[in-house]
Amino acid sequence: MNLPNLPEAVVSAITSGDVNRLNDVYQPNDMTLEDIATHAAYHGQPSIMEWCCNQGWRPPRESFNSKLVSCAVYRASSSIFQILIDNGLDLNAQQNEYHGDPLATAVISRNYNFAKWLLEHGHRPRPSGGLFDTDDAIIHTVIADRADQEMLKLLLDHRHDLENTGAGVVAAEEGTVEALRLLLDRGVNIEERRRVTDYRGEEPHDTEGTALHHACKEGIEECVLLLLERGANPLAKDLEGRSCLDIARECINHEYIVWLLENGGSNLKKHFSNCMWEKLNMRLG
Predict the structure, then answer these.
(1) Burial class (CB in 10 A: 0-12, 13-18, 19+), 2
(2) CB hemisphere CA count around 56 (13 angstroms)
(3) Whole-number Cα distances in Å, 261 to 89, 249, 265
(4) At which residues are the ANK repeats (predicted)?
(5) Is pLDDT at 207 greater than 80 in this prediction?
């Protein structure tokens, strides 16, 4: 990140957190307190940030693409943010077209402690992503290779609104069973539809459908079973008019999923467990 140009002596005082030295080298006619505060945010120096405020500087209550706020977000220092909030910054009025609001950045970077601090200090529970983000930040907690159950639970505990996020569909598509279970426990719409981007890069896009459609297509038996147990409709149609059963029948080696869809009922879980043992014994044998 390109920081404001400041004299070397000033930068040295900021990076070391030396307020006395900063007092000696500060020249108000040659530099702005905003520039000093931006360096303080970038280097995570709350004493310097406090000094700026004591000199009469105040952070913006709201901002768009503020370099200072971006520095504070990337540093993820609760001490810096506490000073900013105490001096007028509104956590819910900060937006950046590249990284979104502070909570979106914390969630995507998997910084649980900072995300928790933001939520406990009034940040809205549904993050707002950047202008180029096609997914809600919560999606990053259910993608298989970066699934973060702890972060997902944190957001849900703070009443993150799940409407139109597609989180349940992505969890089913990705096979993150425990994430899907938690989302269903917290009331995600089991029949929500969305077009899922293939995060593994095998298919750029897929047809729009429910969580059960995508679990059937991917052959993820545990997700199919869980969704059926929770009442997912196996006869629901995707945009191409195919039911979940149609999709399963089109796929190779999805015979057991076809059986599940055709024989949904109270004995599914027991039968699934027995079948998995049979598969394991066949592989070992």
Answers:
(1) exposed
(2) 2
(3) 53, 10, 9
(4) 207-239
(5) no
| Exposure b/e, 35-68, CB count within 10 A at least 16 = b | bbbbbbbbbbbbebbbbbbeeeeebbeebeebbb
Is the CB of residue 231 less than 8 Å from the CB of residue 221? no
Instruction: Summarize pLDDT for 43-94 with one digit per residue, the tens.
Output: 999 999 999 999 999 999 999 999 999 999 999 999 999 999 999 999 999 9
Q: Which domains does the chain have, with CATH numbers?
A: 1-124 (1.25.40.20), 140-285 (1.25.40.20)
Place of tokens 């070397």: 8
pLDDT band at 28 (very low <50, low <70, confident <90, very high): very high
The pair of structure tokens assigned to 114 is 């900072």
Q: Which residue has the tokens 């280097």?
A: 43
Q: At what angle do helices 112-120 and 149-157 cross, to 10 degrees?
A: 0
How many angstroms separate the CA atoms of 52 and 72, rounded?
Answer: 15
The residue written with tokens 């992505």 in the block is: 170
